[in-house]
Specification:
Elements lengths: L19 H10 L14 H40 L4 H9 L16
Pfam families: zf-C4
Protein name: Peroxisome proliferator activated receptor alpha
GO molecular function, one term: RNA polymerase II cis-regulatory region sequence-specific DNA binding
């Protein structure tokens, strides 16, 4: 049941595959580039190979960065623990306002 194309087929989602000519021209009329045209589908094996290669490159690039980040996080954590000794009990007292001394001192840099 093929309808004859009169170069003005109405292209909608439900019938978009009926007339390639009109579908193509509608795409061009809304701004699609000729370079965006695909001819067939990429074979599954080739697609999986490309994904695997992409992940491998990501790991090679990310590994040194991740190591640097882990070192930096460790250094920040150590500095925090050295300079801001806090535990759950102290935090609870501060948050409920049941402590008589402030948890930290704010220095006015202009007074120095």
């Amino acid at each position: 049941d093929l309808d004859k194309c009169e170069r003005n087929c109405k292209i909608q989602k439900k019938n978009r595959n009926k007339c390639q000519y009109c579908r193509f021209h509608k795409c061009l009329s809304v701004g699609m580039s000729h370079n965006a045209i695909r001819f067939g589908r990429m074979p599954q094996a080739e697609k999986l190979k490309l994904k695997a290669e992409s992940k491998m490159v990501e790991k090679e690039v990310a590994s040194p960065l991740q190591a640097d980040h882990k070192i930096l996080v460790g250094q920040i954590h150590e500095a925090y623990m050295r300079n801001f000794n806090m535990n759950k009990a102290k935090a609870r007292l501060i948050l409920t306002g049941k402590t008589s001394k402030p948890p930290f001192v704010i220095h006015d840099m202009e007074a120095w």
